[in-house]
Design a protein that fits this description.
Strand order of the largest sheet: 1-6
Helix content: 10-25%
Order of helices and strands: HEEEEEEH
Oligomer: single chain
Shape: globular
Strand content: 15-25%
Number of strands: 6
Largest sheet: 2 strands, antiparallel
Distance between the termini: 11 Å
Number of helices: 2
Amino acid sequence: MNLLEIKNSMQAIEICDRKNYSIDTPEVIRYAARGVVIKNNRILLTQSTKYGDNKIPGGGIEDNESPIETLIREVHEETGYRVIT
């Protein structure tokens, strides 16, 4: 699958965080990009330092950054691997 096919197959996922916030807590919308990285039939996961859980790489989209650019940057920041496009 090439980069264009990946971009065209991306779907937006909205996740609502409704923890124990008061009713007066303002709603915050944060856009993020995450992706499943597969190599040699293995899935790349990162471990959260905050909660200790495993997750797929990704993170918040910065100003003037596309979801693909975000994912490429986040994979490198979180794992040290470079995405080849």
